[in-house]
User: Fold these one by one.
Assistant:
Number 1:
Amino acid sequence: MLEVSDLNVFINNFHAVSSLFLSLKEGEAVIIAGESGAGKSLSALSMLHLLDEKKAKVSGKVLYNGKDILALSEKELSEIRGKEISIAFQDPFMILKPSEKISKILTKAIRLHNKISRKEAKEIAKERLKEFFPSDYLRVFNSYPRELSSGMRARAMLAATLINNPKVLIADEITRSLDTINKEMVIEALKKKKEDNKTSLILIMHDLSNALSIADYVYIMNSSLVLEKGSADDVLLRPMHPYTKHLLNDSRKDDGIMRKSDSSCPFYSRCNERKDLCKNNDIPFIFTNNRYVRCLLYDERYNQSR
Ligand code: SF4
């Protein structure tokens, strides 16, 4: 359904995403995780051709059902965005206009891609909203975004981005500022869409505590590179890369600062397993134990070196 190959993003001369390969099938969920500045959000935005071309140079291919999104015109893209592929953000106000009631936002979004009357769109909007707010959908329907709690706003944003039943949802850190209960409610809502509608999900995440309940595949990123990728069970339950282990043990302590490294390995300065070899050599992406790992621990040269 979605095949990303050799995606690179340069912001000025900074290599922000390095050669990302990603595959997403119908009804699958892929999580891209890592600390701030890893390149996760830029990867997501570039997949929908949403980066400002004056500031970001994007290369590679993003094939959606065989069409390269990066090569489409703005008109062709507007037919895909919101209808086929939708994106949700950490800040719900990126989607929910503060001056408009939820009813208006949803009705407009439906009519943007469907030739139906406002009355018909309103009825559809109410039904869709019920999936996210079974008991109080009418109150939410008649509210302004600011009248909702942060957790409700996040779910209302999801309702808006999923209103036209897109095939793919890209969700960029949407649970980041939510408390545990609201985080779980959002994850449950996404799981339901994945299971009932076969919606494919790309979830950009920071905190991996809920990841296992929804992900099929996990990509771990740091400093523009994917360091480990494989099935959710393999990566989350049997991590191999030292950075993945660090992230799983310590994900809440991220200070949001991307560390510069004088090695080809972005985790070198924090790695307890580092050797001189890691400093002086390119780190290959090695296939082992059913996943890819960018780490010399799994290279035969490691055991032979000091
Ligand atoms: S390549 Fe070396 S420094 Fe980097 S994570 Fe692996 S062992 Fe650690």
Number 2:
Amino acid sequence: MAGIKEVLIFLLAGISASISGGCSSGRSQPGNSNIIEIRGIYGSPNPFWNKGLNLNELNVNAVFLNWKGINEKLIERAESEGAEVFAEFPLLNGRDYVEKHPEAWAIDNNGEKVKPASWFMGVCPTEPGFRQFRMMELRGLLRKFNIGGVWLDYVHWHAQFEEPEPVLPETCFCENCIRTFEASAGIDVPDADIKKQALWILTNCDALWREWRCSVIADWVRDARMILKQEDPDALLGLYHCPWDDNDFDGARYRILGLDYNMLKEVTDVFSPMVYHGRMGRSPVWVKENIEWFCNALGTVSGSFPEVWPIVQSYNDPYQISPQEFEDVLSYGSGACSTGIMMFTSNSVAGSDEKTETLKRVYSRLMTNQ
Ligand SMILES: [Zn+2]
């Protein structure tokens, strides 16, 4: 069986040929029965394997899991069942790191060290030691295992968006951040205590500050991509990210998290919006609306990079996600311009015979659309 990358390259070649008037094969337009190449699971396949189920019989062809859970045996078995392995790599979450390296602790607009945003603890993204540490970890991962790609996770400034009531503090006003901002924007922030400097920035150069913050996040992705492509030019760089539109929470995706899709689409192969409807207090149909909005916002052309492979919720939190609801979000998530789909988590699906059957049935349908 051809690997996922080969399939992508083949399909992309087909599209460019059809645009230039050659071969007529290619992807259908968004909104039609788009081709779904990636039918993924998020989490270890072990919960399925422990039940005697193979990935190919579930119609799964991609496994996404935390990089620390990857090992050679897992890759070998997944590949033998027709599935490629991708590593989830947490970028800016690091409670352990800031506890050992207080210089990397993010600072809020009161000049205080930030508190954890529920379970998330964002590290200051401009602290040079942390950046070096994380990028070395990434290079180490890519040298150790031959994987299909890396999906960056927690790619945002300190905040929490995965809850119905998000935590959205103003950060980071540490010395590194203020100095880097001054150099980048070509301005001088008056000498004062941190609280006064933060107020001055937010009062006098709010737009420049927000834009600079987005550029810092895009730079992290650019650096990670450079390392990835140096180690394996064929590997894909994906992004798990907040799915909010431009209006949600008063534009907090751009304003607080620092995600500018125009910057990110230059350095990202695949976007995986985390459309966790249950966690975010939304209805299943919101997944459909959100992916349609996102495809439009990204301006992605069917059959070209960047691609969109959403991740939908099966996990029972804060309530039981029914098999029907799970089926709905899988279908909605694979609509519009999506060319892949995955769900959170493998454990939550394997733990329910009905959800396992749902996954198998929906993925079978997506396969036959090809
Ligand atoms: Zn900082």
